[in-house]
């Protein structure tokens, strides 16, 4: 599992609490005209089932104009699209994690042009975690 985490995932540190980081991400997405498909507060869902979970929120988003050609060329990529960013608390440090665009491109054998359609998540999350 550690190899998969090291090679397939990207994790960045946010200087803000989970809730504030989620709000900032949805604001950045809106400003860029991207579609937010869902914001899932997994902690709240766990609490609703009588369980405890650290602050954990999954944001599902994308741009249908960018993702549709990827899914057309590689139908199984729809398992990973739209893109997902997990914002979670790790002992007081907010982390922002997602499957790296390079890993997705490799997994689905995407051409460089199609892979480039997914690469925008890196600068987007850089802006998210900037001070």
Give an account of the 3D structure.
The structure is a single chain. This protein has 131 residues and is an alpha+beta fold. It has one domain (2-125): TT1751-like domain (TATA-Binding Protein, 2-Layer Sandwich), CATH 3.30.310.70. It has seven helices and five strands; from the N terminus they run αβαβαβαββααα. The protein has helices at 2-8, 18-31, 42-48, 64-73, 101-108, 112-116, 121-129, and strands at residues 9-14, 35-41, 56-62, 83-90, 93-99. It has a five-stranded antiparallel sheet with strand order 1-5-4-3-2. Strand 4 and strand 5 form a beta hairpin. The longest helix has 14 residues, at 18-31. The model has no long low-confidence stretch (mean pLDDT 95).
Protein topology:
Elements: H1 2-8, E1 9-14, H2 18-31, E2 35-41, H3 42-48, E3 56-62, H4 64-73, E4 83-90, E5 93-99, H5 101-108, H6 112-116, H7 121-129
Antiparallel strand pairs: 1-5, 2-3, 3-4, 4-5
Helix pairs in contact: 2-7
| Structural class computed from helices and strand pairing | alpha+beta
What is the terminal separation in angstroms? 31 Å
CATH topology (fold) name: TATA-Binding Protein
Q: How many domains in all? A: 1
Strand content: 25-35%
Let me know the number of strands: 5
- Compressed to H and E, one letter per element, the order equals HEHEHEHEEHHH
Going by CATH, the homologous superfamily would be: TT1751-like domain
Number of helices: 7
Secondary structure: helix percent? 40-55%
Radius of gyration: 15 Å
CATH class identity: Alpha Beta
Query: What overall geometry do the principal axes of the alpha carbons give?
Result: globular
Can you name the CATH architecture? 2-Layer Sandwich
Overall pLDDT: 95
Which residues form runs of ≥5 with pLDDT under 50? none
Largest sheet: 5 strands, antiparallel
Which sequence of strands runs across the widest sheet? 1-5-4-3-2
């Amino acid at each position: 599992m550690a190899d998969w985490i090291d090679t397939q995932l990207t994790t960045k540190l946010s200087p803000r609490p989970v809730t504030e980081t989620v709000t900032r991400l949805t604001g950045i997405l809106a400003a860029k005209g991207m579609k937010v498909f869902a914001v899932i507060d997994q902690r709240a869902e766990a609490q609703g089932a009588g369980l405890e979970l650290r602050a954990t929120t999954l944001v599902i988003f994308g741009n249908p104009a960018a993702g549709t050609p990827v899914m057309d060329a590689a139908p199984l990529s729809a398992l990973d699209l739209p893109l997902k960013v997990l914002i979670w608390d790790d002992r007081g440090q907010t982390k922002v994690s997602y499957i790296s665009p390079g890993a997705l491109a490799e997994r689905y054998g995407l051409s460089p042009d199609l892979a480039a359609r997914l690469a925008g998540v890196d600068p987007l999350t850089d802006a998210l975690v900037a001070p």
